[in-house]
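Structure first, sequence second, as always.
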């Protein structure tokens, strides 16, 4: 399983029209392959949309994208509003849940960390150790590492019913000593990974997003 995460920077005040046109085009596209999620930023870098597509592998991605383009109904007609586009291919950590349609949010926190080369195996071991205790405070939507695009990065996504619930869950996890993973690494005598940068944003789903 891979996830293609496409992030578009759009013109200010265009979100409503962008989501309208995207949603109309998606009615055709979903017959070929469904979205995992579609979000727009609420806190952090504003005027962004993020769409996440699940594929079995890169070959399936190429085949489906070609079929969608040949249909004449894809891509959505939003080019006049798009300022920048980037795409990344992510591979889930072994313990990452699969993205499935349903209600988990409506607030989703996307945290993207860049790490020094060669540190990914350490991260995977520490996070696998830390995760069972952490998810008792709030559900994990996914944790994936970048395979194509901006590499040496991984993204973890969490869902919350409100921003207050986010703050409460994080405070309780820290107070319990089960978060962040660096605290678990220290407690367990495990080598911690070297991170070089961290980014964070709060996103919310469009009406047509399978994941709400």
């Amino acid at each position: 399983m891979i996830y293609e995460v496409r992030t578009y920077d759009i013109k200010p005040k265009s979100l409503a029209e962008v989501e309208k046109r995207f949603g109309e085009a998606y009615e055709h596209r979903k017959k070929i392959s469904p979205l995992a999620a579609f979000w727009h930023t609420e806190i952090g870098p504003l005027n962004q949309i993020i769409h996440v597509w699940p594929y079995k592998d890169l070959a399936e991605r190429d085949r489906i994208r070609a079929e969608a383009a040949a249909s004449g109904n894809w891509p959505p007609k939003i080019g006049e509003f798009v300022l920048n586009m980037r795409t990344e291919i992510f591979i889930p950590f072994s313990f990452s849940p699969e993205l499935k349609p349903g209600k988990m949010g409506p607030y989703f926190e996307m945290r993207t960390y860049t790490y020094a080369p060669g540190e990914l195996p350490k991260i995977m071991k520490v996070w696998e150790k830390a995760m069972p205790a952490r998810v008792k405070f709030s559900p994990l939507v996914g944790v994936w590492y970048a395979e194509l695009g901006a590499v040496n990065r991984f993204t973890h996504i969490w869902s919350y019913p409100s921003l207050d619930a986010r703050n409460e869950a994080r405070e309780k996890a820290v107070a319990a000593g089960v978060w962040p993973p660096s605290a678990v690494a220290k407690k367990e005598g495990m080598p911690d990974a070297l991170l070089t940068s961290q980014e964070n944003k709060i996103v919310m789903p469009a009406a047509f997003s399978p994941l709400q």
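Margin note: The first strand starts at residue 2 and ends at 10.
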